[in-house]
Structure to design on (149 residues):
C-alpha cells in the first residue's frame, strides 16, 4: 500500500497533453507493479554476485534516460525524475527486505542475469510506463485520488 501511495503522489503532478486513446489507470499501475516484481531477481543476482543494492551511477543513468523519454513524450522531465526516484527508493527497500530474509533462509533458486535479462526488461517497462502516462495525461489531464487502487 505504501508503494502505491508514494507512486500515486508523484502521478498526481502530471498535467494534460494531447492524444487519442488512454489506457485505464489500472494498466499503468500494473506496469509499475510489474517493474517492481523484478526486485527479488535483482536482489538475488546482487546477493550471489556480492554487489551492493545501491548503484548510484546506474540510478543516474536510469533517471537521465527516463527524462529524455519524458521530453520526447511531452511530459515534464522533472516530474518523471521524481517519479522514478520514488520507484528507485521503493525498489531498494524491496531488495534490502529480500536480502534480510535470506540471512535466515537461503534463496532456493538461481538468479536471472541482471545485465542480459532483468535490465532490458526494466528499461522496456520504464519506457512503456512513460508512454502510457503521457497518453493518459493527454486524455484525462492527470490522475486523481480515486485511482490509487
Amino acid at each position: 500500500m505504501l508503494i502505491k501511495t508514494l507512486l500515486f503522489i508523484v502521478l498526481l503532478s502530471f498535467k494534460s497533453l494531447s492524444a487519442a486513446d488512454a489506457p485505464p489507470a489500472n494498466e499503468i499501475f500494473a506496469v509499475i507493479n510489474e517493474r517492481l516484481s523484478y526486485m527479488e531477481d535483482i536482489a538475488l543476482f546482487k546477493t550471489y554476485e556480492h554487489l551492493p543494492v545501491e548503484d548510484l551511477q546506474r540510478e543516474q543513468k536510469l533517471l537521465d534516460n527516463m527524462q529524455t523519454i519524458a521530453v520526447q513524450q511531452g511530459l515534464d522531465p522533472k516530474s518523471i525524475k521524481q517519479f522514478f526516484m520514488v520507484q528507485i527508493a521503493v525498489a531498494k527497500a524491496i531488495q534490502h527486505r529480500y536480502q534480510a530474509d535470506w540471512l535466515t533462509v537461503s534463496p532456493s533458486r538461481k538468479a536471472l542475469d541482471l545485465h542480459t535479462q532483468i535490465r532490458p526488461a526494466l528499461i522496456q517497462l520504464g519506457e512503456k510506463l512513460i508512454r502510457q502516462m503521457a497518453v493518459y495525461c493527454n486524455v484525462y489531464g492527470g490522475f486523481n485520488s480515486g485511482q490509487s487502487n
In short: Helices lie at 2-11, 25-36, 39-48, 56-72, 77-101, 114-140. Residues 9-20 have pLDDT under 50 and may be disordered. The radius of gyration is 16 Å. The chain has six helices and no strands.
